[in-house]
Amino acid sequence: ALQLRHCGRMAMAEWGARLLRAGGRLALTEAARAGAAAACPSSSRLSSHRFFCTATRQKNTGQSCEDDQSQTQNGDKGESSSTEKVLVEEKTKLEEQLKDLADKYKRALADTENLRQRSQKLVEEAKLYGIQSFCKDLLDVADVLEKATESVPKEEITGQNPHLKSLYEGLIMTEGQLQKVFSKHGLVKLNPIGAKFDPYEHEALFHTPVEGKEPGSVALVTKIGYKLHGRTLRPALVGVVKGGE
User: Fold this and answer.
1) Which residues of the chain have pLDDT under 50?
2) Which residues pair with 23 in a beta bridge?
3) Closest Cα to residue 189, out of 225, 222, 219?
4) Cα 17 from Cα 10, distance rounded (Å)
């Protein structure tokens, strides 16, 4: 029984010690809480200050973002206006170049058309006047035939002289055929007796007063002239009537 009482006392003492320790811990915890509660107002103020700073920073950040956006928009507008200006200048330059090229193209077309017309005219003239040198050479033959027919005395051309008559008729036929060939190729005689003197068709060898004729007219033709397709191939050699003094 004594041992049981001793063991009970020991257990009670140990249990009391545990309670004391638990009570001390609880007191320390309560004291810590009280200290924390006492320190809470300053901490709350610090937290409020931090929150206010954070809000201010966010507001400043928002304003700076808005400023950046406005600056970006202004920059975009400036770049857009400068781009439009460059495009307008390029358009103006291109329009001027187009106008210049169109003018050069029209001039080139006009020059080409003029060249074509000149070339065509030269070709046509070559066709018409290509035989000019050959005709000049034939004119001497025509002159000889004309002189030959004129040199035959007309009174001798009778039946009593058949050989001379046949020769004369042959000369006349040859001259007539030659003149037909000349006319076929545009070669025409110029026998301006009595006509007004024309320096483009006639060549004056002398001036002489002639009664009954107008001054400046052709009084005598010493050599017949010729025209090829309206162009004087050989001027007629003439004597011109001199005007009275």
Assistant:
1) 36-49, 51-52, 55
2) none
3) 225
4) 11
**DSSP state, 156?**
G
Question: What three-state secondary structure class fits 202?
Answer: strand
DSSP secondary structure letters along 54-117: HHHHHHHHHHHHHHHHHHHHHHHHHHHHHHHHHHHHHHHHHHHHHHHHHHHHHHHHHHHHHHHH
Q: Which residue has the tokens 């001199």?
A: 242
Q: What is the pTM (predicted TM-score) of this model?
A: 0.53
Query: What is the bridge-based pairing of β-strands 218-223 and 236-241?
Result: antiparallel
Q: Which two tokens stand for residue 158?
A: 């009778």
Look up tokens 């929150």; give the residue. 51
Tokens of 211: 């009664």
Q: Scan for tokens 């009970």, then name that residue.
A: 8
